[in-house]
Design brief:
GO molecular function, one term: metal ion binding
Keywords: Hydrolase, Metal-binding, Nuclease, Nucleus
Main location: nucleus
Number of helices: 6
Protein name: Nuclease HARBI1
Order of helices and strands: HEEEHHEEHHHEE
Number of domains: 1
Largest sheet: 7 strands, mixed
Structural class: alpha/beta
Cofactor: a divalent metal cation
Strand order of the largest sheet: 5-4-1-2-3-7-6
Number of strands: 7
Length: about 200
Amino acid sequence: MQAKEKWLTRFHFPTAIGVTDCMHVRIEKPAQFRDEYINRKGFSSITVQTTCDQNCVITSIDASWPGSVHDSRIWKNSAVCEVMNRTRNTILLGDSGYGIMSCLMTPYPNLLEEYQIAFNRLLKSERVVIEHTFRQLKRRFPIQNYGCRLKFTSIPKVIIVSLYLLLYLSKAFPCKEKVEIINTNCSKTFYFYLLPFT
């Protein structure tokens, strides 16, 4: 079954295959570039962009950005955005922290018409899967919620492993999926993908 058909078994948004959002993982202030890691809520963090499907199965994660970086910048520089831009008639759902694109549907900013209100209501009700995924992660791995007090270069690896364990423990995906860690030699960027989005 194609990803769009799977989405429609549970939700109603046509051509959608999943949802994307960012969360903050609290960290201690790093020795270098301390201000870059202070997020809009006032604490030091790493911003983690995640995508998931209709069953809360994580399909990608990028745990490489400082807390001060805006969601839309992370999206525009992500490998997922690049893949989605090459994929026609397929979208992800995002919140108002992202800008609308041909591959990313976001809510109307100013609600003037009844159809805009209905659209935003539908989008919000379907985006709940990513929020549910984040709640599961933070409940099962409190280090994601209360702070990661490890060597700074190890934090992205811990985030990746936590998400991988969440998938394994919930038995949310079949073992046939392709899983790869990209750029493991680089101390800054780590990706976890269950691609392709088919």
